[in-house]
Amino acid sequence: MKKTILSLVLLGSTFLGIAQTPSIQRVNPTNWWVGMKNPSLQLLVYGKNLKGADVKINYPGVTLQKVNTVENPNYLFLDLTIAPETKAGTLNVEMTKTIQVQKGKKKAIDQVVKITQPFELRVRDKKPQTVNSKDFIYLILPDRFANGDPSNDKFDDMADKVSDRKNPFARHGGDLKGVTQHLDYFKELGATALWLNPVIENDQPQTDEGGAMRSAYHGYGFTDQYNVDRRLGGNAAYLEMVTEAHKKGLKVIQDAVYNHVGINHWILKDMPSKDWLNQWDTYTNTSYRDEPVVDVLHGNKSDFKVQQSGWFVPFLPDLNQNNAFVANYLIQHALWTVEYFGIDGWRVDTYQYNDLPFMNRCNAALFEEYPDMFITGENAVQNIYSQAYHVRNNINLPFKSNLPSPNDFVLQTAINDALNQNFDWGKGFNRIYQVLSMDALYQNPDLNMTFVDNHDQDRYFSVIGEDLNKYKLGLGFLLTTRGTPHLYYGTEVLMKNFKNPSDAEVRQDFPGGWAEDAVSKFTANGRNERENEAFNFVKTLANFRKNSSALTTGKLMQFLPQDGMYVYFRYDAQQTVMIVMSQNKDDKELSTDRFAEIMGGFTFGKEVVSGNTISSLQKIKVPAMSIQVIELKK
Fold this sequence. Notes:
It contains 15 helices and 29 strands. The chain has 634 residues and is of the alpha/beta class. The protein folds into three domains: 3-123, Immunoglobulin-like (Sandwich), CATH 2.60.40; 137-268 and 319-409 and 446-552, TIM Barrel (Alpha-Beta Barrel); 553-633, Golgi alpha-mannosidase II (Immunoglobulin-like, Sandwich). The strands form seven sheets. Strands 19-18-17-16-11-10-21-20 form an eight-stranded parallel β-sheet. The protein has a six-stranded antiparallel β-sheet with strand order 22-23-24-29-26-27. GO terms for molecular function: hydrolase activity.
C-alpha cells in the first residue's frame, strides 16, 4: 500500500479535525518544573485516536518510562522521569501513528501521522510561606465579596450565563480583582492570611436544588482543574492576587476538592475509563455519617463503602481515588498549583468522604516538596474522637492520618453552645473547658483551624441573638485560645442571618464591594456605631495577637470554670496573658488565689482592648458578660 505522511505541530490546545486522524487537545499538567524532589511525572494526554501511537521524547535528562493506555483510545498516560540535573526548557512529545485512509472508491492507503506536542519545563521560583498558629485567617467567598472587574461577570459561552445580584441563588460578580483591591482592609483588621472558597473553573449549569435553580457560585464543582474561573478573572488575576497579597505580608490558602468534580467537567464528557468515577448499579448517595469510618471495632464494610464511595450529591460525581491515574491527576494538580501560583496552604473540602489512604498519599506528596505546608481538612463532625481520627493523633488506631489540622467544628459548636446556655454543670463555659481538656488526643492542637462560623454555617451574630457582649466573648476567646483562627468575611461588621431558607442567606454580598452599593462597610464612615465597635474590637485584639508570642505559640493553662467565670492563661518564657470570661448578668469580683501557680511574681496588668492598667491582681473586677485580656506585668 502507498504511504503518505502528515505532520502536525500542536500548540496549546490546537485541534485538527480530520476523522480518525490522531490529534492532541489537552495535556495535563499544562507544564512542570525541574528540580522537584520527586522525579516522576505522569502526563495525561487527551485527543482523538491516540491509542497505538508510538511515543518518543528526546530531551536531556527526561526519560519516557512507560506509555499507559486505558479503555478510551483518546487518552494516553505517559510516565516520565526527570533527572535532577535536567535544565529548564521546552521538550517535544513526538507521536507517530499509521492509520488507514479511504478516499472515495479508491483502495485504502496507510497514512503516517506525526504529532509534535511542546511541553514546558520551568525553573522553580515559588517559596510558600508557613501558615500556623501565628496566623489569623480571613475567609472569603469571592463571588460575594467585591466586584473589581464588571466586564467578567458573565460569558455567553459558559453553561451558566446569569449574573444577577437581585437573585440570591445566582452569581453576583465578585472576583479576584475585588479581593486584590481590599488587601489593605485585611491588613488593617489584623488578618495575616486569606482563605478563598474555590477559585477553579466551575463551568456548571444551574441545578435545581430544593425547587430553586441555583448557580455554582460557591465554587465546589470543578470543571477544569488547570483554569481559574474566568468570571473571577482567570489564572492571571489569581496570580496577581497572590503576588500582591504576598507583597502586603498576607499568605494565601486555597480550597481543594479531591472527592468530586462538577457534572460538567471536561473529562466526564469522554472519560478515560468507567472506573474514573465510583460507580454503583443504582445511584447511591453517601450517608454523610462519619461513624462507619471511625468505628474500627464494630463497623461493617457495607456502611463504610457507602460513606466513602457514595456520591456527595447527584450533580457532583464522585472520583475513584483508587484508580491510580485519578490519584496521580489530583496529586499533580495540587503540586502544580503551589508551584504555579505560589499559594501557602490548603483547606481540603469534604475530607472524610475521600479515600483516606489516598489523602495520606496526597498530603505526603505535598510535604515531600514543602515540608511545612499547612493542610487543614473539613470534617463537620461533633465528637472529638472522630475529629482526631482524621488528623495526626495520639490514639492507637490501625489507620493513622498524616493531616496536620482539622477544621475544628467540635470547638465551634462548643463556643456557640456556651454563649447560648446558662452557666451550669456541663453547660455554658464548661462546654469549652470540656473540649479543650481532651486536646491530648491531637499531636498538635495549635494547628486546629478554629472559627465561630463559615460559609456553611448560620452567621455567628445571629446565632448569639445579635448580642454584642456575647459577640466579644466568642471572638475574644477565638483570638486568645489555642489554634489557628479564621474569621468568615463580614463577621467583623456584624453580618447576620440563618440558613433559612438556604445557604444564600449566609452568603450575602459584603456591603461596599460593588460600585453601586449605597454604603461601604470597608470604611469607618460606612459602618454604624455598633459595627465600628465590633470591627475595632477584632482589630485591636487581632493586631495585639499578631505580636504576642504567648497568644500565638505559647502554652495554654485553663482553670475549671466557677461562679459563671472561665479563666485561662497563654504563656511562654517571654509573656503571660490572663483571659477572664464572665457570663454572669451582674458584675463580680474575682479572687486570683487559685491561679497562684502561674500568676506568681506578677504585680499588675494591662487590659489589651481598653488599654486600662490593672494596678492590683489580688482581686479583679469583672463586668457582667465580658472578656478581659490582661497582659501580666512584674
